[in-house]
Amino acid sequence: MGFYGQLVKFYNVEELSADRIAEIRKYLPTADNKRFTIGAFYRFFIPFVLPNNIEKAIYLDGDIIVTLDINELWQFEFADEPLVVVNSGRISLWGIVKAEDYFNNGVLLMNLNVLRNEYETVKAGMKFFSENPQHFKWPTQDVHNYCFAARAIKLQDQKFNCSVGYYARPKKEPLGKKIYHYIGLWNSLTMDLSDPFNRLWMSYFIRTPFFDEDSMGRLYKAFLQVRSDLKNSALKLSAIMSGKTRAFFVEPAKVDSIKKAFSIRDDETIIPADNKEAIQRLIGAMKITQGKCVFFIMTAKLFNENFPFDLLTKEGFVENKDFVKGWNYLDSPLSPMASYSFIQAM
Amino acid sequence: MIHVCFALRDETGHSAKFVGTAMLSMFENIFKHLPSITVHILHDNTLTADNRSKFSYLAGRYGQQVKFYNVVELCADKIAEINTIFPSADEIPSQGAAFYKFLIPQILPADIEKAIYIESNTIVNTDISELWRIKLGYNALGAVPALDIGFNLHTQDKIVADGFVQPEDYFNSGVLLMNLRFLRFKETSIPEGMKFALKHKYFNLLDQTILNYCFSLQTVKLPAKFNQFVSWARRRKETVTRKIYQYTDDALRLEMNEPFNSLWLEYFSKTPWFDIATIGKLYEDLQQVHIGLKKSMANISLVMNNKVRAFCVVPAYVDELKKIFNVRDDEEIILLKNRESLQNLFDTMKEAQGKKIFFIMAQNFPFHTLSKAGFVFGRDFLNAMEFLSEEQGASLNSYKLIQGI
């Protein structure tokens, strides 16, 4: 019995389900990638590693906060359905699964009695995706939906699987009694504690044994790495700029703010990125001044597309010699990705 | 019952955590049955209700007691007396709360005859009852001699150099065992000590100077373990042991791989001040550091505009400089070999003014001499040390971050 008077048990699936893991790797060799590790498939093993006298189980992803009484989910009854899920309502699976059936598999009530007889179904799902990789976007979720979406009990109440990134935040919902899912953690969870959802997650995290004095040290260490990267960038910039002047390529709407950020003088060139021909004007200016001027490209996106740096390099211009990605030098706050990396470090 | 006093002035609201951490360390290491400690906090109007309730919660959690004394209300006459001696007492560095220890004999109830005073930036990593048991007899105080903390610590106070207190008698006032009965009889001693310090302009360590002037010959010399400076322990490469440690001179940092930092943070993490607000504030402050760095990067492009870099460095660090800054062959390097090198630098800078910007990479370089010579920081020269990161030897002062949380 732990601090909260509850129980925890551990199952090493690498030992208990080694054969099933091997099968997954055989059918889906790309399943273990940067975003989704093989661990995402462990939920398929639950019916087989839990004792047979356990007839149902709730599965929760690790990026979840539960503020309602989990009994509300537990109390749902099965007939012969394999799962109780929450309909995500947004997407379908390429005509294989209808939008009204498609579910996010981060929160599941599992009918273990049924699922224990469904491993061949799961294997068939994995085989389908191995033969049709074009349908393969979210590995375990797509396999789960392929196998069980039509038969699962679909809850319409999003409170049992409320995506913080996609649903709750855009609607500026107040916090309530829900299961909050921080899907795509780096998009959903940062250290900006003025945001109520970040604060919610942090308020629980600090009560766990995983938050201690070492957390502060690790947070600080992670920040020092960011600082070190910035210092190195500053060093590089001093080398890039040595003996050269500056010029800027800027969206017209942002000229004033960029002028202020860089203290641009009146005699410094600003090329407005006002139409598609602007790139040619930029290239022309770069050719005239080559070797004497560093161009600060301030447009990461140009007309909704990534800035075409390849057009510059094709002309023989070199990044960090003839041009730089100027937005990297703006006094912007820590990115959500960097902020999330601090949470990971803690 | 052991009576322990702290003094707190807290304009920002962020200083209370240091007292709280010291308190917790004391509670964690006492082995007597409860309640065994009463903490007396001498404060002013800067103590917030939130911090006050945290102190109470902390004491309650450990089955100990805490009492609060607003010196502004309770000792208005004594404070007025101090103000007549020092009209601008608040402006003299390190005063304010440092003077509150003088009020302890008058402010604590008359039936309390002995008390321990501890500075706020302290960790009590031992059983405080060991200190409490020491008998003072007819002496005013018990204190650790400064010589037992650091070999030249006493030289910081001119009262020793001027011969008024012997080096071997000079004590540090960060941890005191106070004979309140004795001190109540000697009520006039402290004002006399203040007048003495004022007359000789001994303002550097004013409260400590006054106490030494008054009582250096009536002070029991305590074992060194009851007052050590972390800065000196580090210098002597000591490990953390069962002692009372003072974190003077910004000795506290967020680098957790250092045992004394880790010691303080370990206790701090158990206090009510280690909460979600702490993390949020730390992150906000890191954001500000980050934004400051980004701003300075935009500024580099402005400063460098149409200028060539040049460098000034001591010969021993030339290779390192070349590597860190990726120095080109056409970029000049001036070597700082001796005093004459400075003049050479001035002459070179004058000749190159407007065309070059000089990166000066030298510890403790006298930048004011460049400014005096008419050169402008950010136009003619830069401090190259500011470009260096942790691994290149320039660490961030994380004590400011700890102060801010």
Structure notes:
- The complex is a heterodimer of chains A (346) and B (405).
- Chain A has 346 residues and is an alpha/beta fold.
- Chain A is built from 15 helices and 13 strands.
- In chain A, α6 packs across α7 and α11 runs antiparallel to α15.
- The model of chain A has no long low-confidence stretch (mean pLDDT 88).
- Chain B contains 17 helices and 14 strands.
- Chain B has a seven-stranded mixed sheet with strand order 3-2-1-4-7-6-8.
- Chain B is elongated, with a radius of gyration of 25 Å.
- Chain B starts with a strand and ends with a helix.
- The interface between A and B is large, with 53 and 53 residues.
Radius of gyration of chain B over all CA atoms, rounded: 25 Å
Enumerate the strands of the largest sheet of chain A in spatial order, edge to edge or round the barrel.
1-4-3-5
User: Taking all residues together, what is the mean pLDDT of chain B?
Assistant: 91
Q: Strand order, main sheet of chain B: write it out.
A: 3-2-1-4-7-6-8
Distance between the termini of chain B: 33 Å
What characteristics describe this protein?
heterodimer; A: 346 residues; alpha/beta; four-stranded mixed sheet; four-stranded parallel sheet; 13 strands; B: 405 residues; seven-stranded mixed sheet; 17 helices; 16% strand; elongated
Summary of the model, kept short:
Chain A has 15 helices and 13 strands. By secondary structure, chain A is α/β, with parallel strands linked by helices.
Give the SSE map:
The complex is a heterodimer of chains A (346) and B (405).
Chain A: H1 13-16, H2 18-27, H3 46-49, E1 56-60, E2 64-66, H4 71-74, E3 83-86, E4 107-111, H5 112-115, H6 119-131, H7 139-148, E5 153-155, E6 162-163, H8 164-168, E7 179-181, H9 185-188, H10 196-205, H11 213-241, E8 245-250, H12 255-262, E9 269-272, H13 278-289, E10 293-297, E11 301-302, E12 305-306, H14 309-314, E13 323-325, H15 336-345
Parallel strand pairs in A: 3-5, 6-7, 8-9, 8-10, 10-13
Antiparallel strand pairs in A: 1-4, 2-7, 3-4, 11-12
Helix pairs in contact in A: 6-7, 11-15
Chain B: E1 2-8, H1 16-29, E2 37-43, H2 49-61, E3 65-70, H3 71-74, H4 76-85, H5 104-107, E4 114-118, E5 122-124, H6 129-132, E6 141-143, H7 158-161, E7 175-179, H8 180-185, H9 189-200, H10 206-215, E8 219-221, E9 228-229, H11 230-235, E10 244-246, H12 259-268, H13 276-304, E11 308-313, H14 318-325, E12 332-335, H15 339-351, E13 356-361, H16 367-372, E14 381-383, H17 399-404
Parallel strand pairs in B: 1-2, 1-4, 2-3, 6-8, 9-10, 11-12, 11-13, 13-14
Antiparallel strand pairs in B: 4-7, 5-10, 6-7
Helix pairs in contact in B: 1-2, 9-10
